[in-house]
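Follow-up to my earlier ticket, as requested here are the two runs.
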Amino acid sequence: MPDTATWTKFATTSNADFYEIEPHALAVVPFEGTIDDAATARQSVAAQLQYLRARGQRAGIIVMMDRVVEQDGGARAVYRDEPDPAFQACFALVGSTAFGRAVASIFIGINPPRVPTKLFATLEEALAWVRTIVRVR
């Protein structure tokens, strides 16, 4: 679990909390033991887009994958098709455990989103990459 004390919480869905880490960098922190399906994926994308569109802001999204125990094909299809590249610049998936990395690798390999998506072992690496992507575009 990352230390979210200095982050600004902006939403909660049925399976995750959502934070702004800094301008142009958001974080998705799933609840422990999360199962991600099409419905929860739609909630996630909608929460991100509502926040970003209200601010007219583009951001990279960092997703903490270690708490996800299952992600089905419906969720992967939503993450592939529904993000808006005008607001969601990239997805940085953080998996520090073997299982978290496996879930993230399946997601990237089977149904990658329309925006750049990479797997990282640490939050710090993911945040550094997000900063370069948001700055470049």
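Run two:
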Amino acid sequence: MGPVTQEPAHHSRPRPAASRPAPAYSALAFLECSRCPGTCYDAGRIQGTCDCGAPLLARYDLEQAAALTGPDQIAARPPGLWRYHELLPVRSAGSVVSLGEGLTPLLPMERLGAALGVPRLLMKDEGALPTGTFKARGAAVGVSRAAELGATGVALPSNGNAGAAWAVYAARAGLPCLVVLPAGSPEITWAECVAAGARAYLVDGLIGDAGRLVRAAVADRPGYQDVSTLKEPYRLEGKKTIGLEIAEQLGWRAPDVIICPTGGGVGLIGMAKGLRELAQMGWIGPALPRLVAVQAVGCAPVVRAFARQADTTEPWPQARTAAFGLTVPDPLGGFLILEAIRATAGTAMAVTDEQLLASQRQAARTEGTWVCPEGAACLAAVERLRAAGWLTDTDEVVVVNTGAGLKYPQTMPAHPPLLHADAKIPSGAEAPMPEA
């Protein structure tokens, strides 16, 4: 579907379209190409990417959104990401597909922060969401909007957790769902897809191979929407609510630094977008947090491009890491990730599997938080950034843990000693510690 109108690049006060009714639930105005400012698309129809192949971004009438609501009104609403509905794309409350997602804890990590030399360390713990990962945010908003616009089904490639989340929310909405996953993805996510009734297939390859299969399948399924990462505009809108929640939980202000695991990059791009919208509305100050993209040494296209001062990423060969969600060798939104971290004076860093797995164990034993390996990569990055002097002991740092460690049991093997029923548990220093 080609562009429908031309709009100015600045969108704090977009011109209203005569055919668009005044928003009551959402202030969504139009969709804009992320590469071609001013090239806009009708938000009232199912859209994929721009004709140039770049992702489309949802734009809102922020002046009207600010007139419709404010921090005080939002505080009085039920907990969950839909409390920000004026800044989300779903047009009516009746179209919302929900499993109670959103408003996850922002946890002080005092002991771990002290050990890492960052005493003001906080963790946004997305493991509390339905399906156990932050993918539930994007699926909730994406499925809601797909159903509202009349899609007959959704299809996507996934490294695991996104497929599981979209399958679950599609089931909630009564929509068919097709998921293709790499054979190396976590088995628990296959089970989630199947349990939710999705048509799930494994491919002997990586997510790019899964994506090619999905594109061919959608062509044969009239009405299906390809909801691959950044190939539809609304998953990003769900992910941006992480940033909105962090700002609200800090009393409508931004922290100094936000550190986010980065595969496809939707979380980081979304947070940057959401915080920028809040700043334009005057709900937070103009200074945005320094954004840090964390990847694994075995798959680090963003880190490599950042180090080379490139504007785009290049495919990463033979991608492999224990943090399977970071195995995205050729992110469609690589240029948007790079723009976001540079615009905020942020950085990009890759950590080894050994470092992230060590940080995962440290967080569990120090704070009682079993984080996913992708979230653990961020904690490993905190340690390295503090040692390098990029972080100081006065910085307020938020690490985004994107999922529950319980979904990755293979990263925390445990072999407690077996006792006979009539045995005595050793006491004191004699007691062996269970292995992990």
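The only thing I checked on run two: The longest helix spans residues 266-281. Let me know what else you need.
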